[in-house]
Amino acid sequence: MIWIGLIVGAILILAIVLYNGLVQLRVRSENAWSDVDVQLKRRHDLIPNLVETVKGYAAHEKDTFENVAKCRSAATSATAPDARVQAENQLTGALRQLFAVAENYPQLRASEQFLALQQGLQQIEEALQNARRYYNAVVRDYNTRIQTFPSVLIAGPLGFRVKHFFEVSTPDERESVQVKF
Q1: What are the Cα distances from residue 54, in Å, to 10, 30, 160?
Q2: Interatomic CA distance for residues 64 and 150, integer angstroms
């Protein structure tokens, strides 16, 4: 009878330890997503200034500016991580177009305001890359834990679900935004 109590107690302790480990990883993944979100917000706040600066030199490039604004709006309004990833990938493409337009204007490339914005965007892109990398590492650990034995016995019934990585969806989106002239 004592052995049965010890076995049940050991199983209960194991279940508690596994559950707590899963919760810790879930919280870390949510925290990591929050870090990505902060960097995306910084990026979104910088983009209107960048667009306005380029607009002053290239007023006839209206379609490019409208596309950047539309993509930025979609990125800021997306709430689910998967939708955010897709919207951010489109925004990255639009920024690439904006910088391609800027390359045609040597006086813009020499503008101190544009250079400061360009440097700020480069710093944000680097911080965003680090935040994405950390998020993906935490998601990898979380997904591995909820899919391996014995955690899988607790994860499924208690609602722990696989999280998606922050990744680009097309090969041309894998190229980074060019901010050098």
Answers
A1: 66, 36, 46
A2: 53
| 46 CB-contact burial (10 Å; exposed 0-12 / middle 13-18 / buried 19+) | middle
Greatest Cα-to-Cα distance within the chain, rounded to the nearest angstrom: 86
Both tokens of residue 32?
A: 């990591």
pLDDT of residue 175: 52
Alpha helix segments (H runs only) across the chain:
2-57, 62-77, 81-102, 106-109, 112-147, 152-155
The model's pTM is 0.71
Top CATH class of 13-174 equals mainly alpha
Tokens coding 10: 């050991």
Each residue's pLDDT tens digit, 156-168 = 999 999 998 887 6
Of 161, 166, 159, which is closest to residue 133 (Cα–Cα)? Answer: 166
DSSP state of 173: G
